[in-house]
Structure formats: structure tokens, C-alpha cells
């Protein structure tokens, strides 16, 4: 594990049924670490190994990964066959790892959650391989439809003239407004309709259709004297007459 000067080799592999590991923070250039097939419960010994790019912690008894978020250079992280139970807690620790491309979490209790895989893909969009399977474009679209309805609707709206694949989106993000229809026993003209409606909005709609009136008012210009006529008149002719046209 260490060279003659006490420094860690670029790659280190431990498989000795370990239950605990000494603090490795002094090995600042450590890049690869194998600790699979041991009996570890946590990863508190790895909080300052910022150069670590590959970490193999599978087949242990790890139940939490608090502190792992500081390892922003991780590219490969193997955590399958452990005891991780908190899906939210695990996602919280991994969110800041922008370089993380390969992740395994299968054979953990958290995998029993509904939509576990899509949940991980949504919160860790940079991951390309999850549980040894490639993350597909269909999964990414499904993830958006389930966890981000607003974004899903926008993506469908701006399809740039192409045909939008909506087969994966079973629930439209925008609920269409119901169309109002006249009751089958509705009568026009002056007949009195005494139909009782279950929905008050229907009654208001029917009344509006029966009693709607359109009125147009305009000045009767024939009653407005010209300037010369005003000079010849001795008395004021009074205000101009208004002409009103009513349509039902």
C-alpha cells in the first residue's frame, strides 16, 4: 500500500476483511483505491483525497457515505452490494460530482424504491453508466416527464418542426379547459326555460345566451349644424341627437 518513504502508490488495493481503515488524507495524490470485499461501514477515512478518480467500495457493509461529496474528481464509483438505505441521502452526497460517469448501486436496500433508477438519472445527469447499464435517451426523456413536467411540456412545444415522440408521456402537463355545451332541452326565443342545472356555471351560460344584447350608439350628424349655420342661427339649436341601434 505504501512505498519506502511512507507515500501511497497511485493505485492501492486492500482486500483483507477490513472493518476500519486509517485516515488516508495525507496521501493527497492517491488516484485509484480498491477496498471491495471487506467489512467497512463508512468512508470517513476518504474526506481529503481530492485526486481520487476511481473508488471501488463494493461488497462491504457500508450504510452511509457521508463525506463522499468532497471527492469531486471521482470518475468511477462502485458501491454495489452494500447496506445503503437512504436514497435521498445517497443522492445528496453524489450531486456535486460532475465528473462521475460510472456508478453502481445495485444490491443495496435503496434499490427497492419505486423509480429508483430514474431518480438517480434525474439527480445525477452526468452519469453515463448506472448499475453496469448504459443510460439511454429514452430513460432521460422519461425522467424529465416524471420529475419535471414543466420542462417536459417545453420540450414538446419547441420540437423545431420535427415529430415529437410523446409515447413516453402518458400524463399531459397542461390540463385542457373543459368546453361548455348547451343542455339538450335548451330553447330559444321567448319560451321560459325552467331547467335545473347541477352546475351553476351552466345556468349562467344559458341565461347569457338568451338575454345578450348588443347596442351601438352614434351621433346623428344630420342634427349637428355646420360652422356657417351656427353663425346664421340666432339661438342655440341644442345638443346633437344620439342614434342608438340595438341588436338581440
TrEMBL record:
SUPFAM superfamilies: L domain-like. Pfam families: LRR_9. Gene3D superfamilies: Ribonuclease Inhibitor. Residues 227-248 are annotated as: Disordered. This is Leucine-rich repeat-containing protein 72. The gene is LRRC72.
Amino acid at each position: 500500500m505504501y512505498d519506502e518513504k511512507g507515500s501511497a502508490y497511485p493505485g492501492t488495493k486492500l482486500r483483507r476483511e477490513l472493518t476500519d481503515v486509517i485516515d488516508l488524507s495525507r496521501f493527497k495524490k492517491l488516484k485509484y483505491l480498491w477496498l471491495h470485499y471487506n467489512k467497512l461501514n463508512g468512508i470517513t477515512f476518504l474526506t481529503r483525497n481530492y485526486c481520487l478518480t476511481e473508488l471501488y467500495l463494493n461488497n462491504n457493509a457500508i450504510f452511509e457515505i457521508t463525506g463522499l461529496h468532497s471527492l469531486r474528481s471521482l470518475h468511477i464509483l462502485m458501491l454495489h452490494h452494500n447496506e445503503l438505505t437512504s436514497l435521498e441521502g445517497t443522492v445528496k452526497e453524489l450531486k456535486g460530482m460532475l465528473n462521475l460517469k460510472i456508478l453502481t448501486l445495485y444490491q443495496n436496500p435503496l434499490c427497492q424504491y419505486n423509480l429508483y433508477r430514474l431518480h438517480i438519472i434525474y439527480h445525477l445527469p452526468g452519469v453515463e453508466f448506472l448499475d453496469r447499464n448504459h443510460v439511454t435517451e429514452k430513460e432521460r426523456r422519461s425522467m424529465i416527464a416524471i420529475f419535471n413536467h414543466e420542462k417536459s411540456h417545453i420540450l414538446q412545444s419547441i420540437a423545431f418542426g420535427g415529430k415529437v415522440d410523446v409515447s413516453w408521456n402518458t400524463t399531459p402537463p397542461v390540463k385542457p379547459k373543459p368546453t361548455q355545451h348547451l343542455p339538450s332541452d335548451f330553447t330559444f326565443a321567448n319560451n321560459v326555460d325552467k331547467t335545473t342545472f347541477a352546475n351553476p356555471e351552466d345556468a349562467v351560460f344559458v341565461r347569457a345566451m338568451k338575454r345578450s344584447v348588443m347596442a351601438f350608439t352614434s351621433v346623428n350628424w344630420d342634427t349637428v349644424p355646420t360652422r356657417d349655420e351656427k353663425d346664421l342661427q340666432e339661438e342655440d339649436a341644442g345638443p346633437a341627437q344620439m342614434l342608438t341601434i340595438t341588436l338581440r
